[in-house]
Amino acid sequence: MSRGVATSARARRPASASIAGADLLALAAAKPRPRRTPAPPRNRGVLREVIDTLDGTVQGVVERGRRGSLDDRDPAFIESQLRWLQPLADIYFRGEVRDIERIPARGPVLVVGNHSGGLATPDTWVFMVNFLRHFGTQRGAYALAHNVVMGLPLAGRWLRKVGTLPAHPDAARDALRRRAAVLVYPGGDEDVFRPWSERNRIRLAGRTGFIRLALQERVPVQPVVSIGGHETVFVASDGRRLARTLGLERFRLKALPLVIAPPWGISPGDLLLHVPLPAKITVQVGEPIDFHAQFGALDARDPEVLWACYHYVERRMQTILDTLAAERRLPLLG
Questions:
Q1: What is the pTM of this model?
Q2: Per-position DSSP letters for 66-129, written without gaps between them
Q3: Could you say which of 44, 148, 183, 215 has the lowest number of CB atoms within 10 Å?
Q4: Architecture of domain 27-32+71-231+278-327
Q5: Could you confirm whether the keyword Transmembrane helix appears in this record (predicted)?
C-alpha cells in the first residue's frame, strides 16, 4: 500500500480518536485475527443421525435457556447457598482470590475471566464466593452462562436464583445499566474445554462481543484470571473438529471434548458430569481497563478497534496467567 493510500485510510477514522487510541489500533497488526477452520464436508454418519434426531429436544432446551430476568436473582437464597459453597471454595479447592478490592464496590463493571474445569467450572464458584463475601449479596452481581446450561430444568432455575443470566449482550447490557457487576467468559465452551496441555493459556476464542459492549456502555473491563481449575479434570481433546462435523454449532456448541475424571473415567462431552479433583485454585484480579479513559474516544463499530482492544485484554490476561503459572510448583498441589 502506498503512503498516500495509507494516509487517506487514516483520515477516514473519527477525528475524536486520540494519539493513544491510534497506538492501540497498532496492536491489531501485532497478532493476526484467529481464523476459523472451515467445517469439513458433512456426512450422514450414525452419530450425526442421532444428533439430528435429538435436534428438537436440544433446541427446546436452548430456547428455554434464553429466558431470564434480572429480578430472578434472590439475595436471601444466595446467602443460604453460601453455607455450603464457602467450605467447597475454601477447604476443598483451597481457593485464594487476590486483590479483589480492585473491583469497584458500586457501579457497573464488566468482569472478564478465563474459564476452566469443564462443566463444573470450579474457578467460577471460588471467585463468586469470595466476591459475595467481600461485597455482600446486596451488591448487584450477575454471571452469564450458555443457553444449554440455563435451559436445564433444575440447574437453570438454581442458576437464575443465584444471579446467572443467559449469555446474550442484551442481558449483560440490562445488568450493567442497573449498575451491576457482570461476569463474562468470552471463550465459552472453547475455553472451558481446552486441552489439559493448554491449561495455562488464555483462550478467548477471538470473540469481541464483550469489547463492543464495554465500549458502548462506557464501562471498565476488569480482568480476572484463575489457575488450578483446569487441574481438577483432564481434558484429552477439546473435540472442536468433531463438534463441527456433527453440526453442533446450530446449538452454539463449539466443542465436544473427551474428558477423563472421576467417577466415570472417560466422559465424552462431559455429559455425565464429573467430580472435580481438589486442586488449589488461585484467582488474580487485575487492574481495571477503561478504554475510553486510557485511549480516548473509540468507535465500537470499527472491527479494527474491537480486535485491538480484544488483543490488549487477552495479552494483559496472559501476562497475569504466566505469573501465576510460574508460582505453581505441581499440578493439584499448587
A1: 0.83
A2: T---GGG--HHHHHHHHHHHHHIIIIIS--EEE-GGGS-SSS-EEEEE---SGGG-HHHHHHHH
A3: 44
A4: 3-Layer(aba) Sandwich (3.40)
A5: no
